[in-house]
Specification:
439 residues, alpha+beta, Naphthalene 1,2-dioxygenase Alpha Subunit, Chain A, domain 1, Rieske Iron-sulfur Protein, 2 domains, ten-stranded antiparallel beta sheet, four-stranded antiparallel beta sheet, 23 strands, 32% helix, globular, binds FE2/S2 (inorganic) cluster, 2Fe-2S, iron-sulfur
């Protein structure tokens, strides 16, 4: 049995490279992280009508997320219960039922087995279809229209799982009219371990002025000095109990998306003025800042650049990346269209900045094939010892230019992999704040 703490040293903020490619560790991740944690499925705006569905993944388990007759949403494993054929070959659509292309068993929108070809002649009169419906994902819930599912019925509620990260999520998602994701998502296959992009988006401000310097120069006419990504006293990182984290940089000059989509500026100014009245000037300021964030285990978003991503694992060194632009529902259609173009031009599959990052993710994963290389450790000690509490901000706070949020991610990662179930995981993480503050 693997003891993940042999590979993740939380106190010294080092990780052995084997967690980025070892097949046995990967199997444990599928079992103890992806079959246990809340995972993003889709957004309500992408399946608005009865019968609308999308097909997505929970770990490597493929699921159909389906709008029900009563407008609720259920999710089912995308496999026929007869001989295990993949049921739905489409990425999305609308249907009140689906039939398997192998022998023709048919399932209704509620997942029930509704028809079996020549049933009575071959199975007899007592064949019980009730027990042969699609396997349902036990927990499905929505947070500001973002639909999450969880394979473990013993998990805490979705709001409890999001914990301190929900307060931050509310700032940009709990706006009048709500937000939506502009679909369908773009999909890319990448030869990288799923943790590389998640840890990058959770708080790697260090790479921005270096990795992206040539593209920033091309886009903006000049490269902001690398020191400008340190941020000011109002810039910070946050980490939370189950490993969700973010970085928010204050007053970062001309934000990238405003450069690509200047039409967004007057919209955000108007919104910020309303937010200042309803929630106060500090919340309004955060709304106008640039954010990088990840929700454990495999969701990332950039607010300010308006992009939402999921990194689906397809093996120890392969992922499928799904990307959606984020928009507010009340935005005029033309602004949504401009924003989607700008979002894709920066962080879509062929986006100028995405290309830089993908190289980093792939070439941080590939060297692990080397027997000697993969014995080595990696370092996340930037800002160690500068963790603090802030009465105005939930979670544990650290400098914007630090690796505190990444350390929080790997603390939660080690907690998850070393716990047998949610009861043990909740006990293990009960002292997360003191451990992070090193008290
Ligand atoms: Fe689906 Fe036989 S495998 S009907």
């Amino acid at each position: 049995m693997i003891d993940i703490r042999d590979f993740v040293d939380v106190d010294n903020a080092t990780q052995n490279r084997r967690i980025f490619g070892d097949p046995d560790i990967y199997k444990l991740e599928l079992e103890r992280i992806f079959a246990r944690c809340w995972l993003f499925l889709t957004h309500e705006s992408l399946i608005p009508n009865v019968g609308d569905f999308v097909v997505t993944k929970m770990g490597e388990d493929e699921v159909i997320v389906w709008r029900q007759r009563d407008k609720s949403i259920k999710a089912f494993l995308n496999v026929c219960t007869h001989r295990g054929m993949r049921l739905c070959p489409s990425e999305s659509g609308n249907s009140k039922g689906m039939s398997c292309s192998y022998h023709g068993w048919a399932f209704g929108v509620d997942g029930g087995l509704s028809a079996v070809p020549v049933e009575e002649a071959i199975y007899g009169p007592d064949f019980d279809k009730c027990k042969l419906g699609l396997r349902e994902v036990p927990l499905v819930d929505s947070y500001h229209g973002f639909i999450f599912g969880c394979m473990d019925a013993a998990a805490p509620s979705l709001p409890d799982y999001l914990g301190d990260a929900a307060w931050y999520f509310d700032i940009w998602a709990d706006v009048p009219g709500g937000v939506e994701l502009l679909g369908p998502p773009s999909r890319t296959i990448l030869n990288a371990n799923w943790k590389s992009p998640t840890e990058n988006f959770i708080g790697d401000a260090y790479h921005v002025g270096w990795t992206h310097a040539p593209v920033l120069a091309a886009m903006m006419g000049e490269v902001p000095p690398q020191a400008s990504f340190i941020g000011d006293e109002k810039s910070f990182q946050m980490t939370s109990r189950y490993g969700h984290g973010l970085g928010i940089i204050n007053n970062f000059g001309p934000a990238l998306l405003l450069h690509e989509c200047p039409e967004l500026a007057p919209w955000m100014e108007k919104r910020a003025a309303l937010l200042a009245q309803s929630k106060g000037p500090d919340i309004a300021r955060l709304y106008t800042n640039n954010w990088d964030a990840s929700i454990f285990p495999n969701i990332s978003y950039l607010f300010g650049i308006m992009v939402f991503k999921v990194w689906h694992p397809l093996g120890p060194d392969k992922i499928e990346v799904m990307t959606w632009p984020i928009a507010e529902k009340e935005m005029p259609d033309d602004l949504k269209r401009r924003l989607a173009v700008a979002s894709h031009r920066t962080f879509g599959p062929a986006g100028m900045l995405e290309g830089d990052d993908l190289d980093n993710f792939e070439y941080a994963t590939r060297p692990n094939r080397g027997f000697v290389t993969r014995q080595g450790d990696l370092n996340l000690q930037m800002g160690l010892g500068q963790e603090r509490e802030d009465p105005a901000l939930p979670g544990v706070i650290g400098p914007f230019m630090s690796e505190m949020a990444q350390r929080g991610f790997y603390r939660a990662y080690a907690d998850c992999l070393s716990s047998d179930d949610w009861t043990e995981l909740e006990a293990t993480t009960a002292n997360w704040k003191q451990a992070t503050l090193r008290k």
